[in-house]
Inverse folding.
């Protein structure tokens, strides 16, 4: 809408500029082209004045000097001098049809208009009247007269005229502009709609811009169908993974069930019970893989419902460490806990965050089977806008060049090397969980101890903006 | 306990057979099975089982609607055993009044533990039901009447002490974080009660420990929380 008004304003301004420019241009043209002819040669009055000055009175009459007769010849004109009685007392080149004597009325007429269609000009010479005639149809003579008041108010009237012109130009340009805008506005709105990824349906039937509207419509429908196809494909993929993991669960139940039964069967030899235990443990690995895979795919395609609520990461970290210790963590692992600013809350899904922290802890344990020291820290970032959990170990870590790689899904195009240890879904899952919380996962090789340092950063929950956050994606359908 | 009638509803015959085997091995002998909703309802009508293990995906409907139909005729406890692990399903199942929800794949031991827990809760005689009374060294802590009994004396527990001790007992021999204890005692949004918690823990120790400053049952796990050790001679 704003852009439409801006276009209209610019259009009107440029119309005004064009009309003012045109006016000035016209004045210049008027001066140079039209009135140029008028002063092309000497004006009749000028010629007459010169001729009069060249006419000398001698004893016997009047004699025109050479230059004077030349001037008359050049202009193809004739001249005569009338005395006080209206009689011709001197002439030069006078056509035969011109009378030799004039009454007062004749003089009055010829001084204003024509003498037998010859345009004539008069000049007072001594006691008489010098009359100069040009050839027929060479000059037009018009009377020009006006009231004195009219002449005085002429500048004002001209100004009013100009203003009226400007007003009319403005009005016309606005009307035309509005009409054009009415045509353009739906198009502009349509293009904005395209940018917002909305469905656009413009009227293509009327207006100058019918075909343009058609193009916008087809662009919109193309975009819409692509978005829909993309969404469908994502859904299909996620559903496919959910379906596969569902189908794996039942047979896996049997594997777990019977292997653990064999494992507990006291009548079996020790070796076979140990083998059954291996089957059971591998089955449990498969179970955790399936649940990770499911969660990662839900997160990847944004289908995981989030149950957001303000919670304290420090408490979650404590819980995760307690969980690890409760599950009989071996003595060779040592856990140091350092929680700062424990009161700070972030807005998050408790289950997902617990899973992320637990996963990072499990990583440190799993990848360092010979034991290590694990440091768990929580703290506020320096600008106090983010809260962090850092899980640091002094184990073997991840080589520097693979750090960027390990948060990508295994076998995806972004990941260059396949996962070397474990199924490789853990860190991508943690990274995804951080992402859906508008946070991030930073992996570093800790300089001092050489192990891995994983930091989860989340925006601090702001009490004021509490109301609008809530669970924006919680009501999405789940498949 | 072992004579309770158990109904297993699952569309996979293999799963039915497997669960039945486990249960029989554990001593249960009155076991009924059904492969779909209609035969499950028929079985409930005919043999009046004491507990049902339901699959969520059944050929003629889902387990949730089956549970709703069961509820119209019986209040028997129900345990869902589902291949759908999504939280929504879990909440839906529990919201409908199921007693527990287990996600496949499961370990038989896990199923058995949860099943017996439900059976105990629902069918145990009132006397046995008062198992929330346990020995701690030389003292006996009775959570039902909120007292600690020594040979000579009987020390009452306050409400907060009782809540904290109950939480610790539910997770006995495991670390319970201070956050979880605060929540148990003061409810949600209980941040800031850490110091009060310490005071209450000290008072509990005075009641249950022989030497409150050298505790052997209610241990502090530095930085994390507390742990109630009920086993003798750790």
């Amino acid at each position: 809408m704003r852009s439409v008004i801006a276009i209209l304003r610019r259009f009107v301004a440029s119309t005004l500029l064009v009309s003012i420019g045109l006016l000035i241009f016209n004045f210049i043209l008027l001066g140079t082209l039209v009135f140029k002819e008028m002063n092309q040669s000497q004006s009749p009055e000028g010629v007459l004045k010169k001729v009069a000055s060249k006419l000398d009175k001698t004893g016997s009459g009047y004699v025109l000097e050479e230059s004077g007769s030349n001037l008359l010849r050049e202009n193809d004109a004739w001249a005569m001098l009338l005395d006080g009685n209206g009689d011709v007392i001197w002439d030069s080149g006078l056509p035969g049809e011109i009378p030799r004597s004039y009454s007062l009325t004749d003089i009055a007429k010829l001084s204003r208009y024509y003498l037998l269609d010859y345009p004539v000009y008069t000049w007072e010479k001594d006691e008489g009247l010098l009359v100069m005639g040009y050839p027929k149809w060479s000059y037009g003579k018009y009377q020009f007269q006006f009231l004195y008041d009219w002449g005085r108010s002429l500048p004002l009237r001209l100004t009013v005229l100009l203003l009226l012109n400007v007003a009319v130009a403005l009005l016309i340009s606005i009307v035309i502009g509005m009409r054009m805008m009415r045509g353009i506005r739906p198009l502009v709105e349509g293009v904005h709609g395209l940018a917002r990824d909305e469905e656009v349906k413009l009227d293509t039937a009327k207006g100058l811009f019918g075909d343009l509207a058609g193009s916008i419509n087809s662009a919109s429908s193309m975009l819409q169908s692509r978005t829909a196809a993309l969404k469908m494909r994502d859904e299909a993929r996620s559903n496919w993974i959910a379906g596969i993991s569902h189908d794996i669960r039942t047979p896996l139940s049997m594997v777990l069930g019977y292997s653990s039964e064999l494992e507990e069967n006291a009548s079996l030899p020790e070796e076979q019970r140990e083998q059954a235990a291996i089957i059971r443990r591998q089955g449990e690995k498969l179970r955790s893989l399936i649940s990770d895979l499911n969660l990662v795919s839900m997160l990847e395609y944004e289908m995981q419902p989030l149950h957001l609520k303000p919670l304290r990461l420090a408490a979650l970290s404590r819980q995760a460490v307690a969980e690890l210790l409760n599950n009989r963590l071996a003595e060779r692992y040592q856990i140091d806990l350092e929680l700062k600013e424990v009161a700070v809350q972030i807005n998050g899904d408790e289950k997902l965050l617990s899973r992320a922290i637990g996963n990072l802890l499990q990583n440190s344990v799993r990848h360092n089977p010979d034991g290590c020291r694990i440091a768990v820290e929580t703290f506020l970032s320096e600008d106090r806008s983010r809260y962090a959990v850092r899980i640091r170990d002094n184990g073997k870590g991840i080589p520097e060049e693979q750090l960027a790689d390990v948060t990508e899904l295994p076998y995806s195009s972004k990941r260059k090397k396949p996962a070397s240890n474990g199924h490789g879904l853990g860190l991508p899952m943690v990274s995804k969980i951080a992402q859906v919380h508008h946070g991030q996962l930073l992996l570093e090789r800790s300089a001092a101890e050489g192990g891995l340092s994983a930091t989860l950063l989340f925006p601090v929950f702001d009490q004021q903006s509490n109301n609008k956050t809530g669970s924006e994606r919680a009501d999405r359908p789940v498949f | 306990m072992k004579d309770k009638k158990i109904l297993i509803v699952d569309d996979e015959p293999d799963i039915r057979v497997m669960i039945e085997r486990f249960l029989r091995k554990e001593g249960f002998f009155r076991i009924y099975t059904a492969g779909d909703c209609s035969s499950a309802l028929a079985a409930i009508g005919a043999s009046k089982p004491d507990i049902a293990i339901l699959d969520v995906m059944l050929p003629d409907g889902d387990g949730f609607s089956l549970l709703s139909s069961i509820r119209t005729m019986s209040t028997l406890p129900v345990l869902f055993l589902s291949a759908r692990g999504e939280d929504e399903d879990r909440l839906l199942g529990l919201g409908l009044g199921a007693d527990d929800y287990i996600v496949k794949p499961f370990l038989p031991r896990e199923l058995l533990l949860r099943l017996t827990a439900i059976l105990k809760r629902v069918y145990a005689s009132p006397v046995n039901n008062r198992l929330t009374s346990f020995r701690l060294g030389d003292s006996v802590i009775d959570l039902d009447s909120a007292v600690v009994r020594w040979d000579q004396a009987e020390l009452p527990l306050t409400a907060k002490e009782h809540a904290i001790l109950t939480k610790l007992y539910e997770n006995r021999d495991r670390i319970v974080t201070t956050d979880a204890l605060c929540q148990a005692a003061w409810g949600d949004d209980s941040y800031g009660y850490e110091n009060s918690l310490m005071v209450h823990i000290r008072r509990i120790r005075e009641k249950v420990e022989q030497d409150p400053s050298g505790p052997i049952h209610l241990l502090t796990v530095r930085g994390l929380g507390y742990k109630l050790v009920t086993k003798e001679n750790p």
Q: What stands out?
A: Chain A touches chain B at residues 246-247, 249-250, 252-258, 260-261, 280, 283-284, 287, 291, 294, 305, 307, 312, 315, 318-319, 321-322, 325-326, 337, 339, 342-343, 351, 478 (CB under 8 Å). Chain A is about 50% helix and 15% strand. The longest helix of chain A spans residues 210-264.
